């Protein structure tokens, strides 16, 4: 007789790992299916080429049809594995107004992840100089809320390639707990479609390198991320998924300083949120120290900059929900006029701060627009209800797709809180 799981969870990233861990406490029969692998060797540019999404041949990162870079990773832990380790509550007020009160889930998650302002000992002289300059100009610049253990951090400045020392929290911790509680995890397996009968879930259709697989379940939770979940929904008959894509577009301003850099600190060590509510952007000192990544970001100008003398600020906006994910997984995403205005406002302030910090303004370069927070493609109120259920009974979505609007903020903490809430609702 064919096996039937109580739950199949699709995707082992921020949402999927949390739901798996929480549901596993209830002694259920759970299968987690993940497209990527458990990566053993992490933390270098060459490692990252394996798990970041990009062309298999040229290694160029995934882009929208209009050329906006879309950063994401396929692996155990998902994009949350390569995150900068920033954990700020986002969209709290908006969810509350929809009847979704996440207060107790936020508190629980913050405790489990040990979220705290980045330890002073980990902040480089470069960021301190930027913060002083910002304050002299009347702007704030505070340590970022992080989930980084200062006793393990070696200040390699490569958080976004994967943390080699385990200083940064990742969903692997939740996956290990789920495994210990009996959850089965199937890696290197891609879910293509949800099977339903008379409007109710029956299971999923998946494939690996060898074969197609049909797996049965009473309930299915899609946590494949803002760019993959809508593709699965569309192939399962929910054709209206995939619209309203946001990505929290960002650019960085880089410039040369005579002797300072941001090399010796966790990336995005500090943050300015002065403009978040009114103007829709945040600022954070940030430089990618790998030349090849700066080449991707800004061509030869980025590549040629001497790594040990760059200071930079990332400008990250809440962009318009203007994008679309097509059934074949390709993406349309532009920088709208409003997005450009927000970016311009933020870059102008960032240049002032950097100049005040001693950066030569003649060396300023701006990176190409990119995004690493895709979501909105299966939003609450449009594709799912406030319990995260679709119009197919027992089919749920729990990842960044469910945000109705761009947070313009690190979304993982909120995704974890939503996942805890869903697990409570289901059990
Ligand atoms: C470089 C980088 C830095 C970031 N830094 C931060 C940060 O500091 N703080 C923050 O809050 N956010 C950060 N983000 C964003 C954050 O990582 C994502 O918003 C978050 O991980 C989204 O969670 P999710 O559950 O929607 O998707 P993910 O965490 O990406 O998980 C989706 C999972 O589903 C798997 N999958 C995809 N398709 C399928 C399929 N068809 N079948 C089976 N499995 C599938 C993927 O492999 C992946 O493991 C960063 C992102 C990047 C790329």
Average of pLDDT: 97
Question: Would you report the number of β strands?
Answer: 19
CATH architectural category of the domain at 1-38 and 75-114 and 169-246 and 372-427: 3-Layer(bba) Sandwich
Taken as a percent bin, the fraction of beta residues is 15-25%
Biggest β-sheet, characterized? 7 strands, mixed
Given helix and strand content, the structural type is alpha/beta
CATH homologous superfamily name of the domain at 1-38 and 75-114 and 169-246 and 372-427?
FAD/NAD(P)-binding domain
How many distinct helices? 11
In CATH, the topology of the domain at 1-38 and 75-114 and 169-246 and 372-427 is named FAD/NAD(P)-binding domain
Q: How are the SSEs ordered, and which strands pair?
A:
Layout: E1 4-10, H1 14-24, E2 30-33, H2 45-51, E3 69-70, H3 92-97, H4 103-113, E4 116-117, H5 125-136, E5 142-143, E6 145-146, H6 172-180, E7 184-186, E8 190-197, E9 200-207, E10 212-222, H7 229-235, E11 250-256, E12 270-271, H8 276-279, E13 281-285, H9 291-304, E14 310-317, E15 324-325, E16 331-332, H10 337-356, E17 365-366, E18 370-371, E19 395-397, H11 412-426
Parallel strand pairs: 1-2, 1-10, 2-7, 3-18, 10-19
Antiparallel strand pairs: 4-6, 5-12, 8-9, 9-10, 11-14, 11-17, 13-14, 15-16
Helix pairs in contact: 1-6, 1-11, 4-11, 5-10
The structure holds flavin-adenine dinucleotide.
């Amino acid at each position: 007789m064919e096996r039937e799981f109580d739950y199949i969870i699709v995707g082992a990233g921020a949402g999927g790992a949390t739901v798996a861990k929480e549901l596993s406490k209830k002694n259920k029969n759970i299968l987690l299916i993940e497209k990527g692998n458990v990566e053993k060797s992490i933390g270098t540019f060459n490692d990252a080429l394996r798990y970041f999404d990009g062309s298999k041949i040229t290694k160029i990162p995934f882009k929208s049809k209009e050329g906006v870079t879309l950063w994401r990773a396929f692996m155990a832990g998902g994009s949350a594995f390569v995150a900068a380790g920033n954990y700020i509550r986002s969209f709290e007020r908006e969810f509350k107004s929809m009847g979704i009160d996440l207060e107790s889930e936020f508190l629980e998650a913050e405790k489990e992840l040990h979220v705290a302002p980045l330890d002073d000992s980990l902040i480089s002289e470069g960021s301190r100089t930027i913060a002083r300059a910002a304050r002299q100009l009347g702007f704030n610049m505070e340590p970022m809320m992080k989930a980084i253990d200062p006793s393990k951090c070696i200040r390699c400045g490569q958080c976004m390639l994967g943390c080699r020392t385990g200083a940064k929290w990742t969903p692997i911790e939740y996956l290990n707990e789920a495994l210990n509680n009996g959850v089965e995890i199937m890696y290197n397996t891609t879910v293509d479609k949800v099977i339903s009968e008379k409007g109710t879930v029956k299971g999923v259709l998946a494939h690996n390198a060898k074969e197609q697989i049909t797996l049965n379940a009473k309930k299915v939770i899609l946590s494949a991320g803002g760019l993959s979940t809508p593709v699965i929904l569309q192939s399962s008959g929910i054709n209206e998924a995939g619209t309203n894509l946001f990505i929290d577009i960002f650019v960085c301003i880089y410039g040369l300083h005579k002797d300072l850099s941001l090399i010796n600190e966790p990336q995005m060590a500090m943050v300015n949120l002065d403009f978040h509510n009114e103007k829709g952007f945040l600022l954070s000192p940030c430089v990618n120290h790998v030349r090849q990544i700066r080449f991707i970001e800004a061509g030869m100008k980025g590549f040629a900059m001497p790594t040990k003398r760059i200071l930079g600020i990332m400008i990250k906006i809440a962009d318009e929900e203007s994008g679309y994910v097509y059934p074949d997984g390709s993406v349309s995403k532009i920088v709208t006029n409003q997005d450009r205005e927000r970016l311009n406002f933020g870059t102008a302030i960032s240049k002032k701060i950097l100049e005040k910090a001693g950066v030569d303004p003649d060396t300023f370069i701006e990176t190409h627009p990119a995004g690493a927070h895709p979501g909105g493609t299966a939003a609450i109120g449009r594709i799912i209800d406030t319990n995260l259920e679709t119009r197919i009974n027992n089919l749920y979505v729990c990842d960044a797709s469910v945000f109705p609007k761009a947070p313009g903020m690190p979304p993982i903490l909120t995704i974890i809180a939503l996942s805890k809430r869903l697990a409570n609702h289901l059990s």
